[in-house]
Amino acid sequence: MKKEPFVTKEQLDEIVKEYPTPFHLYDEKGIRANAKALKEAFSWNPGFKEYFAVKATPNPFLINILKEYGCGCDCSSMTELMLADALHFEGQDIMFSSNATPADEFRFASDIGAVINLDDFTHIDFLEKTIGRIPETISCRYNPGGVFKISNSIMDNPGDAKYGFTTEQLFEGFKVLKEKGAKYFGIHAFLASNTVTNEYYPTLAKTLFEVAVKLKEETGADIRFINLSGGIGIPYRPDQEPNDIYAIGAGVRKVYEEVLVPAGMGDVAIYTELGRFMMGPYGCLVTTAIHEKHTHKEYIGCDACAVNLMRPAMYGAYHHITVSGKEKQACDHKYDITGSLCENNDKFAIDRMLPKIDMGDLLVIHDTGAHGFSMGYNYNGKLKSAEILLKEDGSTQLIRRAETPKDYFATFDCFDILNDYNMK
Ligand SMILES: *Cc1c(COP(=O)(O)O)cnc(C)c1O
């Protein structure tokens, strides 16, 4: 499939007059259409709820759009919980799926009534000691180990992942939790990441549904929800076929009717905690080509760097790049597209065939809407960019300003640099 940016050169030329590059731009129209489709695809399940994985794109304006479609928040840390709480999500609309959890985060999650998803058997005692009780509603994260296969292909390696209870621990955990006063139970698992196949959720659902039936039989637990978590991927590469969320919803429904309904569990709610699927394609990083370098290779240096988008540097991830306005030109030049960090892995693309790039061209780096801005850091003292929303009517809204040196220096309480540069 040909990958086209959701923003035209004409629109970008206007936007950069107001906001200097680099910035992340988000597509309100795309976010809404996708959230609506997800809701429809699972409308067969009355309790269905998507808890948006806040870590993917922790921006209150974007989360509020998803809220209109009934989404809650899946939080992994104190500040994410604070963000969800500040956006007036009700406790039951906040899922707290964390690991190696600090006590004060459990305490805060409990205070705001979030649903706690325990990552480990030992967290049962830790939670009880921390908050003085076990909540009425509790969820456990399951890790069956081994490799996660669909047909014959290995999707991921749960046996190597730090998350979750083993099968034995899950059964024991439910018993212990029940004795300690838990009334309503949930099961959660995240067994493969960024899957671009309609089979992932139905395959995962089958595993979880079968375990749920056994758990109910053996422990008598009242299982209220099954959380399929994240993992539905997006086509980062042009040759990938996008997931069909309706086919995924129907696939989960089929196993639900095969496994849960006959076991008298036809009232169990399906939850999801999607991040990438909800936002990934609806964000892009816009950057300007500011240098060209002809040495052993051809380099284009741009004004964004790995601080703005870490995935290529961190895991060699592919992000498609469009030279804005040159969509129809032949890709007959081979470039490395680099940022300015003193790190040789600071490259958005290596040996990428693109149209001839001229200085000042705007590059659109696709699919940065999830795990893009949010993974950013401040290496080399580089500052994080702005985030801008391209609204449905074509206007723009600044939804996070760019960092300034004052932000960067703000944590040096003992050092007077802010005074020196009149930044106080
Ligand atoms: C990261 C994460 C998600 C979201 O994953 P995506 O790949 O963005 O869908 C959901 N749940 C948990 C617990 C996570 O850690």
Question: Can you tell me about this structure?
Answer:
This protein is an alpha/beta fold. It folds into 2 domains: 28-278, TIM Barrel (Alpha-Beta Barrel); 281-409, Lyase, Ornithine Decarboxylase, Chain A, domain 1, CATH 2.40.37.10. 30% of the residues lie in helices and 23% in strands. It has 13 helices and 19 strands. The chain has helices at residues 9-18, 28-41, 60-67, 78-86, 103-111, 122-131, 167-179, 200-219, 245-260, 276-279, 311-315, 405-409, 417-420, and strands spanning 23-27, 49-53, 72-75, 94-97, 115-118, 137-141, 148-150, 153-156, 184-188, 222-227, 269-272, 283-294, 298-302, 321-323, 333-338, 347-354, 362-365, 386-390, 396-400. The strands form 3 sheets. Strands 1, 12, 13, 14, 15, 16, 17, 18 and 19 form a 9-stranded mixed beta sheet that branches. Helix 3 (60-67) links the parallel strand 2 and strand 3 (72-75). Helix 2 (28-41) packs parallel to helix 9 (245-260), helix 5 (103-111) packs across helix 6 (122-131) and helix 8 runs parallel beside helix 9. The structure holds pyridoxal-5'-phosphate. Pyridoxal-5'-phosphate (PLP) binds at residues 53, 55-56, 74, 76, 97, 190, 193-194, 229-231, 273-277, 370.
